[in-house]
Amino acid sequence: MSTWDRFVDTFFNGKVMLKYLPDILSGMVVTIELAVLIVLSGLAAGLALALVRSLAIRPLNWLIIFIVDLFRSLPPLVIIVLMYFGLPYAEISPSGFVSTWLSLAFVLMAFSEEIFWAGITSVHKGQWEASRSTGLSFGQTLINVVLPQALRLTIPPLTNRTIAITKGTALGTVVAVTEILGEASSAVSNSYNPSPLMMGAAAYLVLFLPVVVLARRLETKFAWKR
Amino acid sequence: MTKPIVDARAIHKHFGALHVLKGVDLRVAERELVFVIGPSGSGKSTLLRCLNRLEEPSSGSIVVDGIDMLDPRTDINHARQRIGMVFQSFNLYPHMTALGNVTLALRKVAGKSRAEADRLGHAALERVGLADRAEHTPGQLSGGQQQRVAIARSIALEPRVMLFDEPTSALDPELVGSVLEVMRSLRESGMTMIVVSHEMGFARNAADRVVFMDDGLIVEQGPPAAIFETPTHERTRAFIGQIQRH
Ligand SMILES: Nc1ncnc2c1ncn2[C@@H]1O[C@H](COP(=O)(O)OP(=O)(O)OP(=O)(O)O)[C@@H](O)[C@H]1O
Ligand SMILES: [Mg+2]
Description:
The structure holds two protein chains of two kinds.
Chain A: H1 3-11, H2 14-54, H3 58-73, H4 76-86, H5 96-122, H6 125-133, H7 138-167, H8 180-191, H9 195-222
Helix pairs in contact in A: 2-5, 2-8, 2-9, 3-5, 4-5, 5-7, 6-7, 7-9, 8-9
Chain B: E1 6-15, E2 18-28, E3 33-37, H1 44-51, E4 59-64, E5 67-68, H2 76-80, E6 83-86, H3 98-108, H4 114-127, H5 143-155, E7 161-165, H6 173-188, E8 192-196, H7 200-206, E9 209-214, E10 217-222, H8 224-229, H9 234-245
Parallel strand pairs in B: 3-8, 3-9, 6-7, 7-8
Antiparallel strand pairs in B: 1-2, 1-4, 4-5, 9-10
The complex binds adenosine-5'-triphosphate and magnesium ion.
Residues 44-45, 165 of chain B line the site of magnesium ion.
């Protein structure tokens, strides 16, 4: 056996791959479910916090900033572990899936709040004044004038951050979530062969590469002339 | 003066320790065009912005078209429809077309249907000579055109008074004329206007009255010829001399 053949036999073993393909596919489904939940709830919560912050109610803003800074400083893995192993002491026992979902959603909420907020504050004061001077209320101005401009500015940093945090679903393995990496690593230990890990890598590429490409297209599309 | 349409009395405005308006009285009659001049920092913009309450005066009273602007019970958003405002930097919404800019408040504040708003919007754009630019975005328009769209955005709401804060200062000289032209036609249609501007030529032949402000106070006011030719106050004289040298 040549070195090359041994390499292929080890990392791209056809028999092993075929055997564990269904596991990897079911892992992909779990990863997709987690990712969709994290993105939807994390971005919605982040936007909601940014909107509340724009009301400029002092004590509320301090609370928002505290929460946001907290979740931006803690490593996501720590949050997942605390939730999964810590909350049962408070008589709440979230599953690994729920722990991973909520933890990463909180992290995405925190980062996206900052990005949304930066977008809102970067809209020129004159836009508010023009709108208010024609009689639009604070809320109408926010929704019709400020947010559409703010969101365009936030799309590049937001997509990058969202992709980075969504890849964190792999952390779910430590709390027994059977997502791609979880399935791949248990397949590796059962088969004594790293090929399933290669399949896992391919699965991530299949899932995330289109998203990254789409993000790039969005960025150019929304970079509009002033 | 018969019953003024703008009646501002004893307006004071503080920004922290800074006393910016020190008791300004300004009454403007219906169909009058009042020109406000004065050195930088004298409080001209602040005065205009108090009139539609973009800025909250520290004290004083402001009645516009019979509405007490400082009464907390006043629906300020409703009142603001009657007071158009045009800014130095146009402040058009960059994500909307010219027509979208003009129709937003018609739909959201005046409660017009989209069709009706579009009809009124087109009519307003027609009045500023931009009927053919309705579908252009601000980025596709010259500064002069943008400012005319901003004027259309205000007049579409059929305001009783229009406030202009240096409407031509951000424009290249060759574009100033088109905006002044629109302002002149507005004046001819009988619009009440308060204009902060350095366009002395326009003031001379369009203004009914020129108000000179300095250091938060109205120092002197009168017909343009009197203010420009024979100012009585030393500060007015100095200011007029300065701008005429330019
Ligand atoms: N929001 C604000 N906060 C603090 N100070 C302000 C604020 N707005 C205006 N000022 C100050 O109030 C004073 C009057 O400003 P204002 O803009 O009314 O002057 P102006 O006569 O319009 O001047 P210009 O000709 O330069 O436009 C200035 O000293 C300015 O720095
Ligand atoms: Mg000013």
